Amino acid sequence: MQIALAPMEGLVDDILRDILTRVGGIDWCVSEFVRVTDRILPRKSFLRLAPELLTQAKTPVGTSMRLQLLGSDPSCLADNAAYAFRLGAPVVDFNFGCPAKTVNKSRGGAVLLEEPELLFRIMQEVRTTVPVGAKITAKMRLGLQDKSKALDCARALAEGGAQQLVVHARTKAEGYKPPAHWEWVAQVKQVVDCPVYANGDIWSVEDWHRCRAVSGVDDVMIGRGLVWQPDLAAQILAVKEGRSFTPYTWREVAPLVAEFWRQARIKIKPQFAPGRLKQWLALLGNRYPEARQLFNQLRTEKDCVVIDQLMQRVIL
């Protein structure tokens, strides 16, 4: 069994990847998507979203990071994938699941699930362009408006060369509304030869058990569940290994928030750092009342120095 940390554009950046992988239980993570259009991107475009490439594509605790690309041009995606491998990416993943309207309008993400033939051409072009033995993977949803092409898309990706599929068990139209249709992951597993990971609505150890039972797959990718509850992967791993594990309280989470803010102050421009802290606190507030209280205290504050002082009093 493996547990992967999902890529979430605008949220799970290198700072949060560092923080969440520190807690344990996460086998690998994925960068935010690098958008590919009509040319090979410069090195700085990759490093901006995946600075772990400078440290052997690992987070500070040694968790492997995969680089994700998003686009629709087979040749350009292939050339950028080859460059990503030269930069040190251990695996290049392809995003066919992003539901954002702005992304879909520019022919990226889930909109391509209407064109299984294009998915096949993309993966085939990538496979023939990247070095022999290089690992390429893909993340998909069950479709754009409906699930009628889900299995065709999965086959196209696998037959084109994807060596692993992560299936977010919802369509683009369903967004993040429950439930995730884990039974469709089971169907995907039946029509492809590569490993399949289930993704969507895993918020607890109990959800993980249910997902395994319904999907028939052991491997999962978790996004929002880990952002809300940083020790979720560690909890699941402990159950899998038959060990006891005491779920984190705010006492254990607060130092993670403090470290997040410390790094944000260094890596993010002052006008944007407060927003990133508030973003995570708001999500943590779904699990930890203390995070909600801190968010409310910081809601309107934009001055980093004032936030420093408040964090010292409340957390440290």
TrEMBL record:
This is tRNA-dihydrouridine(16) synthase. HAMAP family: DusC_subfam (MF_02043). It catalyses: 5,6-dihydrouridine(16) in tRNA + NADP(+) = uridine(16) in tRNA + NADPH + H(+); 5,6-dihydrouridine(16) in tRNA + NAD(+) = uridine(16) in tRNA + NADH + H(+). It comes from the Bacteria. Keywords: Flavoprotein, FMN, NADP, Nucleotide-binding, Oxidoreductase, RNA-binding, tRNA processing, tRNA-binding. Coiled coil: none annotated. The record marks 35, 95, 176, 276, 278, 299 as: Interacts with tRNA. Its cofactor is FMN. Residues 5-252 form the DUS-like FMN-binding domain. FMN binds at residues 68, 139, 168, 199-201, 223-224. InterPro entries: Aldolase_TIM, DUS-like_FMN-bd, DUS_fam, DusC, DusC_C, tRNA_hU_synthase_CS. Belongs to the Dus family. DusC subfamily. The active site is at 98 (proton donor).
